[in-house]
Write a structure and sequence with these properties.
heterodimer, A: 305 residues, mainly alpha, flat, B: 449 residues, D-Maltodextrin-Binding Protein, domain 2, 2 domains, seven-stranded mixed beta sheet, five-stranded mixed beta sheet, 40% helix, 16% strand
Chain lengths: 305, 449
């Protein structure tokens, strides 16, 4: 089709209508211009919100490397250029952070294994096997997501105290081996997306129900596994309330409980809290950055389903 | 058709079992005593990292001197203490000795989970009169003692020397009256045009420097009224309060005048509504003076940005002074298996020797044992006039009320107080409403199951 120029607006003739004006007055040019403006607006808004969300992290970084006097100065100074590692040194030595990190690593590793294994097994059951009342059971299981964890805190404490499990990691780890509702839901949805033919073929070849789960379902559910593992890692690493309640001695503390020790009723030792919080988020940040591709593909599978 | 599990299946099951065993191995409970002859004492604390550092040094010495005790330190961060304390009460697993502030000590007494120490004190020949009476009263009920205070932190008047110098105003002294305080507060308050409240054209909506950061805009403000002869507590237990009694209204009117008419103090000192900074504007250098506890010394010295000193709270028209303090102490769980050993450890932890050596650091708190309080006099640190803190301990009292329903009453009435100080509600009307709510809340809280 032949390219045509848009008609010149009335009253604009000759030299008054330059090439530039003609260019922007054509419908295609206007659309292109609008597109550019739209993109600029979208990116502008996204950048603004990205900055807003990053602000606490930036503030943490700034505070962690600032000399102690500047941490508490008013008005606050941002990136004064005065950089020190003293806060890291003092913070690390103020409390046994090496122990806290190891404890957190242990709790996180075991609870992630427990969560992923048990939730995938239960999710597989809900996805592949039909029994009377299974739907109701699934609904009840989902409904437990609505119960705020704080309401069950004291009953759980009483229960675990009677079992003699207080100040051990059992109250933190044991429940993860019995399936977590959110992850069960995630796995059930994922397993339902796997064509039934795979399982039928395996059954014909003599595969047991556990074999179906272990040999067929799990290897195909890698995105869901990684997504669940990442969410479980973030949850376990950042958990504060349960370790606070169930652990009592410093040698058992996790990172989050240790960090809270820098907060007093009347004032916080921000110059120590921020560098140690920074140390604490690095491992989980690495895990998230490495695994974000899997999170996205895992979640997209759920959305597509 | 089912198939027998293969080698890989077995290996997988073995891995899962191994994980479980590893987990169990790391979860050995510390409560089982290894050596039967040693007495295991669980010591629950709620300290900051800085407090723990010195406290643990002292604890190490006690462990050395008492090898017969296996002292297990159970530390809870302060921001999670309430949840832990309630869970431990519900499950009957309170530590043998537990660090509690007055509100939680009183909760423990009401719920019957703290041991009555009266007989143990008498048997041990322990002298409670060596403790500041204001700190001790928070651990008493009906003449019985349920805990011993470790430290207290009285409110005194902090002042920013730099601001006083810049405004050419004389520093406060221990002889100040509240009228001296008002005069200085007005002279030190500035709007953004540099006008003081005495100048024509002063803009109260744009104050950039406050003379005083204080206003008794809530229930826990007895010390602000007592110097004027108006105590809102109607009895020693303070389970009845009246803010609409004539003498309390008169006392309060002095403060309303300072805030709403002189504009020399903000109506809600810590909200940041008027000052633009969260927390204490004195710390931010936006207020020339402020009432605060000894804990502020630690914070100010850590930042090192404010040159300051302290004086005692000013005297009222008849020379009466008052201050309140937050207190920390130790109680013993009623279900302890070793009451005598627990009491002996408690006695050591609260003794003048222990607290003066391991507790009287800048900002931790003043030892509640009188004979240990001098340890806070440390010429190496600001403030110079630390004696003001010790002097204030003598007439200080615990924050009251600490009866059931007090915190609820505080929450339910705080908006009324602020409304009065903002000048939106007439004083008498607001306080009558506050009294009605307080009475209702306290009755409801105390008539529950």
């Amino acid at each position: 089709m032949k390219q045509t120029h848009a008609p010149q607006p009335q009253g604009t003739t000759g030299a008054a209508t330059g090439a530039g004006i003609r260019r922007f007055s054509s419908p295609r040019a206007r659309r292109s211009m609008l597109h550019v403006v739209e993109r600029l607006l979208v990116y502008g808004v996204l950048t603004f919100f990205a900055f807003l969300f990053l602000l606490p992290l930036i503030s943490m970084l700034d505070t962690a490397f600032k000399p102690r006097a500047l941490v508490y100065s008013f008005p606050p100074t941002w990136f004064s250029g005065d950089v020190t590692l003293d806060n890291f040194r003092f913070g690390w030595n103020a409390l046994p952070f090496d122990r806290f990190l190891l404890n957190t690593l242990f709790v996180t590793s075991v609870s992630v294994c427990g969560t992923v294994l048990s939730s995938s097994l239960v999710g597989f059951g809900f996805a592949r096997y039909h029994a009377r009342g299974a739907g109701l059971l699934f609904m009840v299981m989902l409904a437990t997501l609505m119960i705020p964890p704080t309401t069950t805190l004291i009953p759980r404490f009483v229960l675990f105290a009677k079992l003699g499990w207080i100040n051990s990691y059992l109250p933190l780890l044991d429940p993860t081996f019995f399936g977590m509702p959110f992850f069960i839901f995630l796995f059930r949805q994922f397993f339902r997306s796997i064509p039934r033919d795979y399982f039928d073929a395996a059954e014909i070849d003599g595969c047991s129900p556990f074999g179906l789960y272990w040999r067929i379902a799990l290897p195909m559910a890698r995105p869901a596994l990684v997504t669940s593992a990442l969410f479980a890692t973030i949850g376990a690493w950042n958990d504060f309330l349960d370790p606070l309640i169930f652990l009592s001695t410093m040698d058992k503390f996790t990172l989050q409980v240790g960090l809270a020790t820098f907060n007093g009723a009347y004032y916080s030792q921000l110059h120590l809290l921020m560098p140690m919080a920074l140390v604490g988020i690095v491992p989980v940040l690495v895990v998230v950055v490495v695994g974000q591709r899997w999170i996205l593909s895992g979640l997209m599978r759920q959305v597509e389903k | 058709m089912n198939r027998r599990l293969g080698r890989r299946d077995h290996a997988s099951v073995a891995v899962v079992l191994l994980l479980l065993l590893t987990m169990l191995a790391g979860c050995a409970s510390p409560f089982g005593g290894d050596e039967e002859e040693r007495i295991t004492l669980r010591l629950g604390t709620q300290m900051t990292a800085a407090e723990l550092e010195s406290f643990e040094q002292g604890l190490a010495k006690i462990r050395e001197e008492h090898p017969e005790w296996d002292i297990q330190l159970e530390q809870t961060p302060q921001e999670g203490f309430v949840e832990k304390f309630n869970a431990q009460i519900a499950s009957n697993t309170l530590p043998d000795i537990i660090q509690v502030g007055i509100p939680h000590a009183q909760q423990g007494i009401r719920q019957g989970v703290l041991l009555d120490l009266t007989e143990l004190i008498e048997d041990a020949g322990f002298d409670p009169t060596d403790f500041w009476p204001g700190a001790l009263e928070g651990y008493e009920k009906d003449g019985r003692l349920y805990g011993i205070p470790l430290s207290a932190s009285p409110n005194v008047l902090f002042y920013n020397k730099t601001i006083f110098d810049a405004e050419n105003v004389d520093y406060p002294t221990d002889d100040w009256t509240f009228e001296d305080l008002r005069t200085a507060a007005i002279a030190l308050t500035h709007d953004r045009n540099g006008n003081t409240p005495n100048d024509p054209g002063f803009d109260p909506d744009n104050v950039v420097q406050w003379g005083l950061n204080a206003a008794p805009a809530h229930l826990y403000s007895r010390a602000y009224f007592i110097p004027f002869g108006g105590d809102p507590c109607r009895n020693p237990a303070c389970d009845e309060m009246s803010f609409s009694a004539p003498e309390v209204l008169e006392a309060m009117s002095w403060w309303v005048d300072l805030v709403a008419n002189n504009h020399a103090a903000p109506y809600d000192p810590y909200s940041g509504n008027q000052t633009g900074v969260p927390g204490d504007p004195f710390v931010a250098g936006l207020a020339a003076m402020g009432f605060s506890g000894y804990f502020l010394v630690g914070q100010l010295n850590a930042s090192g940005t404010i040159v300051y000193d302290i004086v005692q709270p000013p005297a009222g028209p008849t020379g009466v002074r008052a201050t309140e303090f937050s207190v920390h102490g130790f109680g013993i769980a009623k279900n302890t298996k070793h009451p005598e050993a627990a009491f002996e450890l408690l006695r050591i932890l609260t003794s003048a020797e222990f607290t003066s050596e391991y507790w009287a650091k800048p900002g931790h708190g003043v030892p509640a044992a009188k004979s240990g309080a001098q340890a806070v006099l440390n010429p190496r640190f600001q403030p110079d006039n630390e004696q003001a803190i010790i002097d204030a301990m003598a007439y200080g009292s615990a924050f009251k009320p600490f009866v059931e329903g007090a915190l609820e009453s505080w929450l339910a009435t705080v908006d009324i107080f602020i409304s009065v100080f903002k000048g939106e509600t007439p004083l008498a009307e607001g306080m009558a409403e506050a009294d009605r709510i307080i009475a209702e809340t306290m009755v409801r809280a105390n008539s529950g199951p």
